[in-house]
From TrEMBL:
Keywords: Lyase, Porphyrin biosynthesis. The keyword Lyase applies. It catalyses: hydroxymethylbilane = uroporphyrinogen III + H2O. Pathway: Porphyrin-containing compound metabolism; protoporphyrin-IX biosynthesis; coproporphyrinogen-III from 5-aminolevulinate: step 3/4. CDD domains: HemD. The lineage of its organism: Bacteria, Bacillati, Actinomycetota, Actinomycetes, Micrococcales. It comes from Cryobacterium ruanii. Belongs to the uroporphyrinogen-III synthase family. This is Uroporphyrinogen-III synthase. GO terms for biological process: protoporphyrinogen IX biosynthetic process; uroporphyrinogen III biosynthetic process. Residues 24-248 form the Tetrapyrrole biosynthesis uroporphyrinogen III synthase domain.
Length: 262
């Protein structure tokens, strides 16, 4: 008999909506807890529609034209790496969270600020003045996705900084297989992980109403808010915006009750 304390997700089928190294790691962590992960990427990333603007910004970055650069996702780090972007020695880098910071370091870049409490653009804004010793104005390059809300750029401009906001990539939806759609709609999946507002949109559009027996688990309060705004039911919310916290929240939900009988 499986020990629920060591394998709390034994028998659970969990939809992992992202592929690549992130999806592989999450799948491995889920297996370690007894779950059967279903890796079905629902979003992908494409080149920005304004490549000249990105190229020009990265040229200026290498030339030392910016005091700071802000990075809000690991995908942006992938863009930097693919362009072989060079960060001038005098330019400092702010990462929105630990996951993004880890991606920067793994890619060979340095990190000067990571929010200590709230791993989000809002959290970075709240700690910005202290981290930068209140210096105004600073020349800041903010790299973002096409659909990201310009919260960070607008917040920095509001307090007097010289901000150049550039789209680094586009987020596009990816249709999952007919079998995955059928399984979710039939309630044959125990949990669906929602890792961003973009994923929430795809979950809603591709699956419609999620069956009550299936838990919808969001990676943090911001994603939960975005999910509800799209009409998606939210059952589990991770306390931190990280894959580890998301899985632990799912484990807590499993230990609090019994695994759905499918």
């Amino acid at each position: 008999m499986t020990n629920r304390l060591t394998k709390p997700l034994a028998g659970w089928r969990v939809l992992v909506p992202r592929g690549g190294p992130w999806g592989d790691q999450v799948a491995a962590n889920l297996r370690a807890r007894g779950a059967h992960p279903i890796v079905a990427p629902m979003i992908n990333f494409a080149a920005t529609d304004d490549a000249p603007a990105l190229d020009a910004a990265l040229t200026r970055l290498a030339a030392g034209d910016f005091d700071w650069m802000t990075i809000t996702s690991a995908t942006t780090v992938d863009v930097l790496s693919s362009h072989r972007a060079v960060v001038a020695p005098g330019t400092r880098i702010a990462a929105v969270g630990e996951t993004t910071a880890a991606a920067l370091i793994a890619a060979g870049y340095h990190v000067d600020i990571v929010p200590s409490e709230d791993n989000s653009a809002r959290g970075l804004l709240e700690e910005w003045e202290t981290a930068t010793a209140g210096v105004i104005p600073l020349r800041v390059l903010t790299l973002r996705s096409e659909i990201a809300k310009p919260l960070l750029s607008e917040g920095l401009r509001r307090v007097g900084h010289d901000v150049e906001s550039v789209v680094a990539y586009r987020t596009i939806g990816v249709p999952v297989s007919d079998q995955v759609v059928a399984d979710v709609k039939a309630g044959l999946v125990h949990a669906v992980l929602v890792t961003s507002g973009s994923v929430a949109r795809q979950v809603r559009e591709q699956f419609g109403d999620i069956p009550e027996r299936t838990l919808v688990a969001c990676i943090g309060p911001r994603t939960a808010k975005d999910s509800r705004a799209l009409g998606l039911r939210v059952d589990v919310i991770a306390s931190e915006r990280s894959a580890e916290s998301l899985i632990e929240a799912l484990v807590d939900a499993a230990l609090a009750g019994t695994a759905p009988a499918l």
